[in-house]
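HUMAN: Forgive my ignorance: could you write out one protein's sequence and backbone structure tokens?

ASSISTANT:
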Amino acid sequence: MWLRAALVGGLALVGPLGTIPTPAAAENASDARAAAAAAAEAIDRLQPRVDAAVTAYERALEGLASDVTAGITANQFADEATRAHDRATRVAHQRLRALYMAGGQTGLLASVLDAQSPSDLARRIGNVGRVVDSDRNTTSEARLDAHAAAGVARARGNSADSATATVGDVESRLRDLTEVLEEAQSVLDALNVRARSLEDAERAAAALTAARAAADSARWNTAGTAQARGIPVTFLALYRSASATCPGLPWPVLAAIGQVESGHGSNPNDSYAGAQGPMQFLPSTFRAYGVDGDGDGQADIRNPADAIFSAANYLCANGAGKSDTRLLGAIWRYNHADWYVAMVLRIAGQIAARFGEPPVADYAPRST
């Protein structure tokens, strides 16, 4: 498009004798001021669309992090409640076992019969009852807490799964933002050097720069706050098995990519760019790197086993198992964005810590 405009503009400038005047010289100061003012007005009219596109992009990025944050927080609470119930049960069993080892019911009865007075008898009976009742109540309350926490985790998990944001959603919003910014930028690009230096044009250019900076900041802020979510059992097994086909590739990295690409398969919809399946492969890339992960004789881009084993194959082909530096490059090849690399590694690090795996390579978001 720019080439056609340049050619048309060049032909229009050809004079009767075939000379081409310099555009900056052909436009006087008054014309430059008018052009700068008109450009600023045009960009002012576009500003609401720019603001809306930036906001939509920021919300998509926040969704990529926040919908998993609620789920993991609920899951952590449920896990802790379950552990508390287990601890209470173990304590109760240990206490009862100790009582029986000391003489069982006969020992307890002997303790009561050794009472020196009616009041001492009542106290001893009460003490025995309180020991047993206290353990029973503690265990019962812990069990109720664990059931309640599990219910909250399921509810939040279902809510998150039903609205899982993915990298595809973010990229779609980025496309919308890029289009409106390019439209505004083209207005400035049409100005000559003299008009661009005037106050109105510089103000308009500053507004576009601020919009780009806001989008860039949102990317890195999200990369620095994203949280790992729970991993379905079937996907967990696939991530571990697939990583074994590429020695040196940490399975939490595969899991982190699976989370940001489709929420571990909960939102495998095709992206606007045509990426498909739970690991969001472009069909052309899958044709080159797709493998049969489940042994059924075919490689299916939408099949979780095939997609995850293919992702391991693609990362490995790009050096993911060789070194931390090659791993960073392989993740970047998966999605050409530095903030994406930072987010994947942050999530992978959390997964590794949760499962007691060795730490993965670090890639802190840059400052903006």
